[in-house]
Structure formats: C-alpha cells, structure tokens
Amino acid sequence: MFLPEPIALSASGPATQLFPLGDAAVVVQFGERIDLASHLAIQALNAHLAQQPFAGLRECVPAFTTLTVYYDPWLVSAQGRYPPYDRVCDLLRQRLRHPAAPAAAATAAALVEIPVCYGGTLGPDLAEVARHTGLAPAEVIARHAAPTYLVHLLGFAPGFPYLGGLDARLATPRRAEPRLLVPAGAVGIAGTQTGIYSLPTPGGWQLIGRTPLRLFDPAADP
Questions:
Q1: CB neighbours (10 Å) of residue 204?
Q2: CATH dotted code for 117-210
C-alpha cells in the first residue's frame, strides 16, 4: 500500500504530495487551493517534463491542483532495479527540488479575447444570476466581462476551458435541473467558476451569454 508522501516544493510554494493512480501513473498534488501559485507550479513541472522527459514517460495531464504523470512500467523498470513507481517518484522528486522557473511557464501563455453576447435567448439564465447575486443584469455583465481569466485546465469535453478569476459576487449554484443540450459557445457560471461550452453537450451551468467563436475543431491542425 502506498501512502501520499509530502514533499516541500519551496519555502513559498504549495505543499506537494505524490501518490499512485493505478500501476502506471503518479499524481503530483500541489496543495488543495485553486490559485495562481498552484497553477504556476503545475505548469512549471509540466513544461520541465515536456522539455526533458524521462525514459518511459507517456503523458502528463494538468488539472486544478494536480499533474498526473503517466508512464510505461516496463520501460521505467528497464532503467534500474527499483520498482517503476518508486523510480518515477524519485525522478519527480528531483524535478520538484529543482523546478523550472514559474515565470517561464507563465510567459508561454497567450492572451485570447472572447467576444460574448449576453442575455436574451443567448443567455437565458442571466436573470437568475442577477436575482441570486442581488445585482442588476447590466452589472452582472460588466463584472463578468471585466477580468482577465486564467485557463486552469480543459475538460469535461474537448476544448472546454475552466476559467479562474470570476468576480466573487457572481458566484451562483448550478441549475437544479441540467439542460439536456447546451449549445457550443454558451458561457456559463457554476459556483465560483465560469467556462465556455466547446461542444453541444448536456450541462447544468447557469448560461449568461454565448460566443460565436469555435473553441474546438477536431479537423484543425494543432
């Protein structure tokens, strides 16, 4: 049985833990807060592994507070006498003790402007968000459009961005009854998060607007 092993990332960074996910992955958890410090630490380690992969590395999947590192146990075990999990944890410890500069990961980000039409048939839940928050619909729109958001991760559908930086006054619970179909481009709020539906899918977020931009194109060349 493997137990999470705390590792200090830095004196000022989030506390870090490693634990297994099945027999071919290690989850690196950077604290429990969804914030900029955790995001930068995740992106720094992700960039470091992309630039200098270890033998047997398959894929890294970043999330809100974790980076899941998938590996090939056979290829990893061929590198030494230690069990694959222990070997990968040791390699990750070395990277965590000497992380890439967070600024390097941050500078790789691009600023993308998303045009949004708010309210009406394109934002059918704008009135509900206004009622819940006690704000006028125009103020909900102004507060939602004002921030520069940070994309923490993509999911639950391809290209769906989970955005950090929502004005705390706009926090609104999900709908009691999810919709069977939410159109692509719909902009929603769920709790303290905001995001954009990249594909037509079921969904329970409060829809306040829609963008004409196509966030996910399976035929596009990355």
A1: 15
A2: 2.40.100.10
Delimiting residues of CATH 3.30.1360.40 domain(s) in the chain: 5-107
C-alpha distances in Å from residue 166, one per residue of 1, 132, 183: 40, 16, 22
* Architecture of the domain delimited by 5-107: 2-Layer Sandwich (3.30)
Query: Range(s) for CATH 2.40.100.10 in the chain?
Result: 117-210
pLDDT tens digits, one per residue of 42-88 = 988 999 999 999 999 999 999 999 999 999 999 998 877 789 999 99
Segment 123-136, tens digit of pLDDT: 999 999 999 999 99
CA distances from 36 to 93, 122, 146 (A): 22, 31, 18
Q: Kindly give the residue spans of alpha helices, DSSP state H, lying in 3-83.
A: 36-51, 73-77
What tokens does 220 get?
A: 């596009």
Q: Please give the Cα distance from 111 to 211 (Å, whole number).
A: 16
What pTM was estimated for this model as a whole?
A: 0.79
